[in-house]
Write a structure and sequence with these properties.
Elements (H helix, E strand, L loop, with lengths): L1 H9 L41 H29 L9 H5 L7 H22 L14 H11 L2 H14 L4 E7 L6 E7 L10 E7 L6 H4 L3 H11 L2 H13 L1 H6 L4
Helix pairs in contact: 2-4
């Protein structure tokens, strides 16, 4: 355990207490303990699309629970092996789930995925007080049109995936690292597209706790409202970060 502590002393310990943080970067941080990040907006600022109570419970309840349980399983794993995962971020670990010992794998996938997935989900949304229709910039728009034919066809396909996903999970727009093409995929429960070698840049959470207080069992209403919150500038920033982050180029050889 001393080796782990020495390693963390040499690591860059990032402070994520600011409410305007780029929270997607937390996923790639190597820290002794992950903190529940503050959201980049107040709980009431996503209204009328996501209500204050839902966002508060989702963040302080569900996301906080995943964070706490992730730290617990990582601590247990570090006592078992003080090199890997102590020298890796949760994002890197989820990209190499086959290296996780069997006794920790389920807990890491569930709680690590819950931590990472929510950080991405919060990031790709922002307040829309003027209720504007938002679209991507020309560069991302061109990639979407190349991959799906048009923005409307992409939006329709993404929406259909969200409507038809059985049970709890997420729908993602991800970039494939090798050919840079965009694809739509789904994950069940807290599985992450990182574990499939993808670079996720847009996500909707369709677990019932993401919308049940406001929309009850009406998932279509949640999906429709969520589109109004998608911040394409943040999506593009996340996309650029994955592309520019040279560390991930090495990780692709794992797949």
């Amino acid at each position: 355990m001393a080796a782990v502590l020495n390693f963390f002393c040499l690591s860059i310990l990032l402070n994520f207490s600011s409410g305007k943080q780029k929270i997607y970067k937390i996923n790639d941080a190597i820290v002794a303990e992950y903190e529940l990040p503050s959201l980049p907006y107040d709980y009431a600022e996503l209204e009328p699309y996501i209500d204050k109570e839902t966002l508060s419970v989702h963040h302080q309840g569900h996301h906080a629970a995943y964070t706490k349980k992730l730290n617990a399983v990582l601590e247990s794993w570090r006592q078992y092996n003080n090199s890997w995962p102590a020298e890796e971020s949760i994002q890197t670990i989820l990209r190499a789930v086959d290296r996780i010992p069997q006794q920790y794998k389920s807990a890491i996938v569930n709680n690590g995925g819950g931590f990472v997935n929510h950080n991405l989900y919060w990031w790709v949304m922002s307040p829309n007080p003027d209720r504007e229709d938002r679209i991507p910039s020309s560069n991302l728009m061109e990639d979407i049109e190349t991959s799906f034919g048009s923005f409307d066809k992409f939006k329709e396909a993404f929406t259909q995936k969200a409507l038809s996903l059985f049970g709890s999970g997420y729908v993602w727009l991800s970039r494939q690292p090798k050919d840079k093409m965009l694809i739509i995929s789904t994950t069940a429960n807290q599985d992450s597209p990182l574990s499939q070698g993808l670079c996720p840049i847009l996500v909707i959470d369709v677990w019932e706790h993401a919308y049940y207080l406001k929309h009850k069992n009406k998932r279509p209403n949640h999906i429709s409202d969520w589109w109004k919150l998608v911040d394409w500038k943040n999506v593009e920033e996340l996309d650029s970060w994955f592309i520019k982050n040279k560390e991930h180029d090495e990780l692709y050889f794992l797949f």
